Amino acid sequence: MNMSMDKAIGSASVRLSKKLTRIINHHLKNYHITTEQWSVLRTLNESDKISQKELSIRSDKDQATLTKILDLLVKQENVERVPNPQDRRSFLVEITPNGAHLVEEVAPYLEKVYVEITNGIGPDNLDIFREVLSKLEDNIAGLQEENNQKEGI
Asked: Can you give the CATH number for the domain in which 59 is found?
């Protein structure tokens, strides 16, 4: 009997995502951040001051979730909201020196963790894995776009 695509791809992807999140959260615990906070910090570290909307797109977080994450990162003094000179009603988000230092410390550490996670998987297979993930994401984006057009969004 063949395994369904739902089980082979859907369930397997969800399981892998949950396991990755758990192990990375475990390793980030000493830094007092979560994987969600890390992805926002890393994104901000690669950017200059950006709007919360742009950060939401770049970090793939919905606005409500991002607001909660930013509130925590502001409280930890890792990011700050600064007035937007082009629009007094909005703020720009930027990483603080404290946050930049945290990224400098965490990034190489997580790189070592991912080396352990990918142990025994050759570079060619990792390239194929990234290609497949990228194609799946592209296909999903296309399906979402079709759904949005059908719904008039």
From this structure: 1.10.10.10
